[in-house]
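> example.struct
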């Protein structure tokens, strides 16, 4: 996994138009409440007893600090957090589910939700936990067959990072807004600003589908139908999007064999002055660039074809079936689902709030670059919430690599992916 997709595991989505909302199968405003009504109500009073919580990566390391407030409010509860490496997390979860040893509460990657629901591993969200203030696409990521399971914990989306100073050197003073403009800026970086490559893009390999899907969505395409019961890889919008992505490699604008994706050093040196990534890269490039570097680069929303679209990532919180302390588990989730706690978490981790009210806090809103991410969240989309998506995505990644590195025709790549996906099925 390269540096730009190191949070590939977390998935999600938001829609910009009613048509896109339908294509993602998003429930309407009344659906989530009704879907959650079957969950048993919570018992009043503070949480008690003990809880086990699994969280991945940096979140697993930082979560104990965040939970101090919950334990102060609920002095008779004990929470044990187990950090789990992302590389082994999926297998650890499935083994624990099979053995009946899953934790009470856990951070769950969005692309795993449908799979875990299919294993009867997650509880539906009780009605006491409001879901109306979450970004709509974030709710998509926890909704399976019309029922809401868990809550979105934090969100992130991908935007375009670019060197403003080098763009000005190349004669471009405003960021592009469409596909043609993005390619023109990348070429201008090479021709007029001494860049080795105009933009960093992933030429296939694990997680490369995430780089391509925003272009497919932008062009009005998708890879599943409205009901998420049939695959739709073969389509004119998808082929056009993949051909456009391929052009960056055939025209030698993007490196077809990067050592490890783009590095912070490439961006700071100007050898690769543009890439697509999430908010975590801001601190990385600014730390390496030193004083004043924050003024040398900017971010802008994904350029549009029919619309601007991006991949919305993040992670969810779920309560597992079989927990022996259900009320305390949901009360912990409820605590983490308040705007003030999400803002506190942003301060600890820079993970962006999944609640829209969290963005009203000046700690989040004061940075103009974060405002670009906020704007993109309104037009970001989710990967398919189907139980087999991890398997299908691996097949798609392999075909994207054939297109980018070996010149395979986009139509042929999509036909192969369609056939392989149909062989795997949706898991319904």
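> example.seq
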């Amino acid at each position: 996994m390269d540096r730009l997709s190191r949070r590939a595991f977390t998935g999600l989505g938001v829609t910009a138009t009613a048509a896109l909302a339908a294509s993602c199968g998003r429930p309407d405003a009344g659906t989530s409440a009704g879907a959650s009504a079957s969950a048993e109500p919570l018992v009043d009073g503070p949480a008690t007893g003990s809880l086990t919580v699994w969280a991945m990566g940096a979140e697993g390391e930082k979560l104990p600090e965040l939970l101090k407030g919950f334990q102060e409010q609920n002095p008779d509860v004990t929470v044990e957090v187990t950090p789990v490496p992302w590389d082994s997390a999926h297998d650890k979860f499935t083994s624990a589910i099979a053995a009946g040893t899953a934790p009470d509460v856990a951070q769950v990657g969005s692309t795993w939700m449908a799979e875990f629901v299919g294993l009867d591993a997650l509880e539906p969200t009780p009605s006491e936990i409001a879901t109306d203030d979450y970004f709509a696409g974030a709710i998509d990521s926890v909704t399976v067959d019309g029922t809401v399971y868990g809550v979105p914990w934090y969100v992130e989306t991908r935007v375009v990072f670019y060197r403003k100073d080098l763009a000005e050197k190349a004669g471009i003073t405003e960021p592009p807004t469409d596909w043609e403009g993005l390619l023109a800026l990348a070429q201008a970086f090479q021709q007029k600003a001494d860049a080795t490559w105009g933009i960093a893009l992933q030429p296939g390999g694990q997680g490369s589908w995430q780089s391509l899907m925003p272009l497919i969505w932008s062009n009005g395409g998708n890879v599943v139908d409205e009901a998420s019961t049939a695959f739709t890889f073969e389509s004119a919008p998808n082929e056009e999007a993949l051909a456009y992505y391929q052009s960056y490699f055939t025209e030698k604008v993007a490196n077809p064999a990067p050592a490890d994706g783009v590095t912070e050093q490439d961006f700071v040196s100007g050898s690769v002055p543009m890439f697509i990534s999430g908010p975590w890269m801001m601190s990385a490039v600014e730390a390496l660039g030193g004083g004043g570097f924050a003024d040398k680069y900017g971010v802008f929303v994904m350029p549009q074809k029919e619309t601007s679209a991006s991949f919305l990532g993040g992670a969810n919180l779920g309560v597992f079936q079989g927990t022996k302390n259900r009320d305390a588990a949901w009360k912990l989730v409820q605590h983490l689902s308040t705007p003030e706690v999400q803002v506190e978490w942003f301060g600890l981790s820079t993970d962006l709030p999944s609640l829209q009210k969290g963005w009203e806090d000046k700690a989040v809103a004061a940075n103009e670059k974060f405002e670009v991410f906020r704007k993109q969240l309104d037009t970001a989309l989710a990967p398919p919430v189907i139980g087999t998506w991890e398997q299908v995505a691996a097949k798609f990644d392999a075909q994207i690599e054939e297109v980018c590195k070996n010149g395979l025709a986009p139509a042929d790549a999509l036909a192969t992916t369609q056939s392989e996906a149909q062989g795997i099925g949706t898991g319904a």
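> remarks
The domain at 160-306+386-424 is CATH 3.40.190.10 (D-Maltodextrin-Binding Protein; domain 2).
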